[in-house]
Design goal:
Blueprint lengths: L12 E6 L6 H5 L3 H21 L12 E9 L5 H7 L1 H6 L22 E4 L4 E2 L7 E8 L5
Parallel strand pairs: 2-3, 2-4
Antiparallel strand pairs: 1-5, 2-5
Length: 145
């Protein structure tokens, strides 16, 4: 068990970096559903590869309660709601496998506010396209009654 930054409560942590910033909401909405499905599958594989490269292991049981931090590093500053809406595909990758979501990794049990506390800071601006990325940190939190 690893203690989260700035906290004394124990909990598992999964952190990884994707080589590209997440898609924004408007391009996502303008994409045909068949292409969205292909993009979703490719993103799930990118998450698996990033986790493996950074020696992160998919937990045997999903986190029942977690804080999810996603940082989008890009050259241009997107509007905040478009950025957060674009996180949908990434968050869906972290949920368990279902018939409608065969690419799920099972890191989070559900994405509702009861189970996940979002921590989405303002977008980070970088100078060069080579520095673009998405940083993800999932901190397991104790279940409170």
């Amino acid at each position: 068990m690893v203690a989260p930054e700035g906290s004394t409560a124990p909990g598992r942590v999964i952190a990884f970096v994707l080589p590209e910033p997440t898609i924004l909401l408007n391009p996502y909405l303008r994409t045909h559903w068949t292409k969205r499905r292909k993009l979703q599958l490719a993103l799930a594989w990118s998450v698996r590869i990033a986790m493996a490269e950074q020696r992160q292991v998919i937990p045997p049981t999903p986190f029942a309660r977690a804080v999810l931090r996603i940082e989008r590093h890009s050259v241009k500053s997107p509007d905040y709601d478009g950025m957060v809406g674009g996180f949908k595909m990434l968050i869906d990758c972290l949920l368990p496998v279902t018939p409608r979501r065969p690419w799920g990794l099972g890191v989070l049990i559900d994405d509702s506010p009861k189970f996940v506390t979002p921590d989405f800071p303002l977008p980070f601006l970088v100078r060069r396209a080579a520095e673009r990325r998405t940083v993800v940190r999932i901190q397991e939190m104790p279940i409170t009654q």
